[in-house]
């Protein structure tokens, strides 16, 4: 597409990536901060982890100020200490119009896209462009709608009489407008707004002058004043699209259809260059504002050295989001190298990052989180069951304890009990191993598992109990 016609039509890219991260965090609706960004002990589904949440609150402030971009934040801490949860809370607090993109480090290794292309797309999804546009609208109270159907039933024609307090006009209606009016169930007395460019009809409410005409109406009926002045008005509308959406819409091979399939393929760098230039122009002219959002890379230790160096570079770009990363690794090897570094993140990126730590929960915090989770899963726990789950959470992990809730609920349902009791949790605990017991089992029965060389000792191993034995033909 030529430079002059870069389109920003607000088609919505279907974002499936990251969906799988959400369910476990569905109880979280924000960071749980007060007006001074101080964490409340338990709010918006968030419990404890106060230091990390306060730090996340400051990042929220940075993002909302919109001036600061190209920073990297690393959330580091032991497994199931709420790193992903905090990122989800952050995304919920950002508010509309600030893009948030979540990917897992391993997602960039796909056969369809190169690593750098995946990362570029993730970066550009996290930059919002707020575009101001003037559109012409017709806004007024409907006086009469008259629709003539032709005898053959095909072509429809009609007239719309619409007024403001100062004037009244009759518009001829085509098929498309008639459909729109029918779909919106527009009646005489409604105040409507019609976008002249797209023909989109919006019902604003019912006119006050007609309020007496209705003796039966729902509580949701909204009354508005009949508009004053001219019927046709110019109105400024603001919509936010991500740089990535603009890329896709304007890339010649893909076109906007790719936004529906999500299959965008590689986007040529010339397209991106053109768009960058254009967006910079719009910014100069005051037509657009750049909104740096947040790119969250979970399990960042899964990235390799090339990806890390790409991120280093991308953070210095003109259009850079705030990059939040999370990892549970200590000193570990960076993929694609044979040297070790803290959190598996190379020193040069670590050096540019501010680091937030999460730590293990106290019993009280665990108990509160577990009961919030039970609530979320619509499971009822009695006090004993909750106490045991809390103890399990302390000795294994929060995630394992939380996972037992659903299982224990099924066990309780089987005995037709509405509330989960102590024996249900016990039973769930014996049926499903936590990682530690599983490791123990593997060690005790190492001979009956297939080893790295592909050797397996079927049946003859004295260690395995009868029902654990593998069957030989
Ligand atoms: N402070 C908290 N308040 C409420 N829920 C929490 C909190 N911390 C963790 N959770 C919940 O506990 C579960 C595990 O936490 P989460 O997935 O965030 O851990 P993580 O630190 O990302 O672990 P990992 O390193 O294994 O990825 C999730 O369901 C999460 O929503
Ligand atoms: Mg996580």
What does this structure look like?
Residues 452-473 are annotated as: Disordered. It is found in: Nucleus. It is a single chain. With 473 residues, this protein is of the alpha/beta class. The chain folds into three domains: 42-129 and 241-357, 3-Layer(aba) Sandwich (Rossmann fold); 132-237, RuvBL1 DNA/RNA binding domain (OB fold (Dihydrolipoamide Acetyltransferase, E2P), Beta Barrel), CATH 2.40.50.360; 363-447, Helicase, Ruva Protein, domain 3. Helix content is 33%, strand content 23%. The strands form five sheets. Strands 5, 6, 7, 8, 9, 10, 11 and 12 form an eight-stranded mixed sheet that branches. It has a five-stranded parallel sheet with strand order 4-13-14-3-17, sandwiched between helices. Strand 6 (156-163) and strand 7 (168-173) form a beta hairpin. The longest helix has 17 residues, at 398-414. The N and C termini lie far apart (64 Å). 32% of the residues are buried. Residues 10-22 and 461-473 have low confidence and may be disordered. Bound molecules: adenosine-5'-triphosphate and magnesium ion. Adenosine-5'-triphosphate (ATP) binds next to strand 2, helix 2 and helix 12. Residues 24-25, 28, 45-49, 77, 79-85, 326, 328, 369, 398-399, 402 line the site of adenosine-5'-triphosphate.
